[in-house]
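Dig into these lines:

——
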Amino acid sequence: MIRVSLAALLVAYAPGALLYRLPFANRTRRAVLDAEERGFWHVILSVAWSLAIVLGLASVGAYRFERLLIANAILSGAAILAGRGGLLYRGQAKSIRWTVVLPLALVVIGLVRLQPTSEYIIGGKDPGTYINEGIQIAQRGSIVIHDPVVAAVPPALRPLFFPTYAMQPYESLRFMGFFVEHTATGEVTGQLPHGFPASIAIGYGLAGLTGARLAVAAWAILGLVALYVFAARLAGPITAFAAAALLSVHVVELWFARYPNSEIALQALVFATLLAFTRAHQDDDAFFAPVAGVLATLLIFTRLDGLLVAAGLAATMVLTWIVIGTRPRVSFLITLVIGAGLALAYLTGPLQSYLITPIRFTDSVSRGLTWLAAGGGVAGLVTLGILQRRFGDGARSVVPIALTAVVIAAAAYALFLRGPAGRLTDFDAYALRTFTQFFLLPAALVAALAGLALVATSSFWRAPAFVIVFAAFALVFFYKIRVVPEHFWMERRVLPLILPGAFVLVAFAALGTITSGLRGWRLARPIAGLVFLLWLGQQYAATAAPIAHHVEYAGIIPYLEQLSSKMGDRDLAIVESRDAGTDTHVFAPPLAYIYARSVLVLASPRPDKLMLEAFIEDALTKYQRVLYVGGGGTDLLSRRIIATPLADGRVQVPEYASTPWNTYPEGPRRKDFDYSLYELSLGTREGAGFSLDLGDRDDLYVVRFYAKETSEGRTIRWTGPLSYIAMPGLSGAEREVVLTMHDGGRPMAAPPARVTVRFNGTIIGTIDVRPGFQEYRLPLPTDLVRQAGGATDPAQLTLESTVWVPRDYLGGTDDRRLGVMVDRVDVH
């Protein structure tokens, strides 16, 4: 514990504290800042330095946690030597005031409310990708993963696991979220920017997998404090605390503070960047100019949204230069240009395969509007410069009012007039309405717009970057959300700036800048505002209550550890395809990239049998065992491929409901993960008919069935519209197939349960399935059976079912397209 504490101090406090105290760049100016802000800068400077070291070392494949500690120790020692005894303030520092309890209270709230974090370490979506990317940096020391399991697959057999994708800059997929750049060398890169995973790597170095998960909550707490210190400069400590307190109880903040995502890191970095920029340009503090440049660069390495912040800062810099004569800080420009060069090399290098995705996601209309807005902005600045020369200080008041008018007009249009048309989707057209209805509330939106008007008329030039960048984020993401339109997934877009920025404006409208000189009627506004904020906080807390004790995927980590323990260091595990109908494939990334197992994922639920036989034969010369993990169904067996059952597993974990953009999530539900583990080998299978109990170790025989279930004491699976059963081992003398089925109790209003059965593509009968489990017999064509008995591939039984969707007839969230229940298949 002492070692971890000392390491955390060296990573997240000591370097920044010493740099901040160095007696240069007029240290007196930063010495008189409030103690809480000084402490914040100690932490954020250390975090920024540590992230830069991790990214720098990982970019050349040289990261180790010990090297990070050494680098931080060297920097700290260099700062002590450079300070030459002058690191003490010696009476220059502003004394600690009562306001220091406010950010400390936010830290306590964060520690209590924003934990425990999700156990989302599985693959399939961005959260698991972030975690696995970060742990790979920690384990392998590189942004680019050199994966020997990929390189070991013979070239002729790569299509089994690594199909090529047309019009893509990468060769194939390793897992969802991981691109195979060069199959021959095993070069793999994570899909997502590495700024946030770098912090996960630090957390992993401090406390293993627990530390990696806690990195998410640490960013959320830092975000609350960053919002406070920024807002305190703009509107005072009480108003700032009110804004941060609202954020701390909000459902979006609570959800993403426990759910691995880069937006929560962006939140802290954005407000730190805005504060550093404002201190440098509005408060004339030279120390913060390069700090702002470094932080703006880290934003780009964390999310591409950081480019929008950088553009907003550039626009602010030019605007203030033209209107009020504030010259840009050269050190900020130099730092930002160098950072932009590094970011360009990163985006066009290790991240080039990812960069194409947002480019393609942005349609031609959006790109055209972006260029139009940029051109209009440049033209506006030129016009403003001309008017400034002719009309003097008039622009000081015109610019804030004009910007506020644009934002309010856009909000009114989005709320009352905008609707889907042409290529404009409904979820984009109603984005602001959805956010307001479900998450902000109409009263808070009105207050935020009022706060924007008040800031514009009274305080705009004290923090112009905040208003400009906030407006840019709102206009961009309420125009197009640019993300899958599901809750809470789409609320990621408002997390970095829109939601916390709105709370700053709401608190400003409600409380203004509270001073100790308020008396009499002047107290009316803050008292009324406080009542409004308490009511608003109560509404937010009530909305967030269902997730307050919810831990996404709680229990999945020990389950994966148990599965990993069944695999040896010299075993190869083949995991079923992403297209197999269940989510077993999400186990593959953590098994490979957290628990260091050799893992491959099939590209198809019906792989080529001859290629698979050749692969198993080759793999058994390199690995001790070849295992298979599946739960959904894969047509894997042949006359030579033998599967020996080893183990079964099943776990239920909590998963919060995911709903479309126009429906609020109902609450937690249970998600089932089950698998069977087999050992694959090569041999000879004797023909002796076929018998299969569905739902019981049937994974290697069924395709396009739903997950295993039990009904009336029987193990069963539901068919879908088209479901397949592979039947290896037929002798050629079989004469009939017997199907034990149940209509599943489908409602009277649903289509009748009817199944058309094909044997190797030929229709052998149509069955009207009745309630209750009953046997249905169909004769088999002699010629087809004889051909199947001599074939290498197993015979295939196809069940084409009429389907019904429980959600449409019974309500609830079950949107499966169900056919019938199948209990057994016997071929005699």
The first helix runs from residue 2 to 12. The chain has a mean pLDDT of 91.
